[in-house]
């Protein structure tokens, strides 16, 4: 049975046998992040490439939780190796705190780039949420077993649901789940410093990070399945499909009473997206690991080998190309019948520009670890 060890929580690690399907999943997810974040014009975007306005879900709403799900899997595979090599708790705690801090500060840096206007600093953000989820999940993995992790994840989802619908919000009332008028927004206004993305609320706020931890736990549980040497590859595929479909259905049904909502990271949203992520990984695992058909996934593997570097480039390059982007929008996008396509092609171009240095790093076997 192959031994799977797949990187740290966000980058690439060392192993005797790479889990290529996870690398590919990570890479395709990061590439999708770049594309949906960098259209030429936000006024001209195909609807599936936009986030849902509020309740509901689009393909774009799946990208971020997919990445957090992958973070959870990577924690299991990499921290299992730390346990096997006899790493001390002190070493693990220091390593975890250091990595989470670097990712968090990198998110702050990208939020400030390029103006570096500290009066407009945003403490919340995508990398910041990844850092907090990684920190919580890494400690959970180290100090608890998989059954306790599953129980903690379930409790978090139920408690978050009860809190959001049952705790009265001053000036708002109880059970309201409208933009800026809900418990999560109230908590963010009370506790979170700095500017918020939507003025009075933030989609990566404090309270909604708790169910995001449950997304990470779902990945950790799938990682435990993948790492189990007593389960055949075919059985792993079947279990990933079964567990994923079960979570997807449960999330869909739960959404009848507690809406699926990315901005609030609601409990049904966690189950719905984790279920989809599990089934996507099962498909990749079957094709790549079981059937051995790998060449088609090379681009994903290359992106996944330096995922954080790719994400950072995807945040910096659009700012550098801002003057060219303005010209492109005025001369190629605006007033055209194919404006949405032109806007998408710009995003694909940005993604390709990110791919070039990532490919060079991959060729030279340079893997940036945080």
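Sequence proposed for the structure above (370 residues):
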């Amino acid at each position: 049975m192959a031994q799977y060890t797949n990187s740290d929580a966000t980058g690439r690690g060392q192993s005797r046998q790479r889990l290529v399907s996870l690398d590919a999943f990570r890479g395709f997810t990061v590439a999708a992040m770049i594309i949906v974040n960098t259209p030429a014009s936000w006024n001209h975007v195909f609807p599936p490439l936009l986030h849902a306005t509020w309740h509901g879900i689009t393909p774009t709403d799946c990208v971020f939780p997919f990445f957090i799900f992958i973070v959870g899997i990577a924690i299991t595979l990499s921290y299992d190796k730390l346990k096997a090599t006899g790493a001390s708790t002190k070493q693990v705690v220091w390593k975890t705190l250091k990595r989470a801090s670097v990712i968090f500060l990198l998110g702050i840096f990208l939020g400030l780039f390029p103006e570096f206007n500290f009066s407009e600093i945003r403490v919340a953000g995508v990398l910041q949420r990844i850092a907090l989820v990684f920190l919580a999940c890494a400690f959970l993995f180290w100090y608890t077993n998989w059954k306790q992790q599953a129980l903690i994840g379930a409790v978090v989802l139920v408690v978050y649901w009860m809190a959001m619908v049952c705790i009265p919000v001053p000036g708002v009332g109880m059970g309201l789940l409208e933009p800026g008028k809900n418990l999560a927004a109230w908590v963010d206004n009370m506790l979170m410093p700095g500017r918020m993305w939507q003025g009075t609320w933030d989609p990566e706020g404090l309270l909604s990070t708790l169910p995001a931890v449950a997304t990470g736990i779902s990945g950790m549980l799938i990682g435990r399945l993948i790492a189990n040497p007593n389960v055949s590859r075919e059985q792993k595929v079947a279990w990933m499909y079964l567990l994923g479909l079960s979570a997807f259905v449960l999330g869909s049904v739960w959404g009848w009473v507690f809406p699926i909502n990315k901005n609030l990271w609601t409990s049904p949203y966690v189950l719905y997206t984790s279920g989809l992520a599990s089934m996507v990984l099962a498909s990749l695992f079957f094709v790549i690991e079981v059937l051995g058909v790998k060449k088609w996934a090379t681009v994903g593997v290359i992106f996944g080998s330096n995922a954080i570097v790719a994400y950072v480039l995807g945040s910096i390059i659009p700012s550098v190309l801002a003057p060219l982007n303005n010209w492109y929008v005025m001369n190629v996008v605006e007033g055209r019948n194919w404006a949405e396509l032109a806007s998408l092609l710009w995003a694909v171009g940005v993604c390709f520009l990110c791919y070039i240095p990532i490919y060079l790093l991959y060729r030279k076997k340079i893997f940036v670890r945080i």
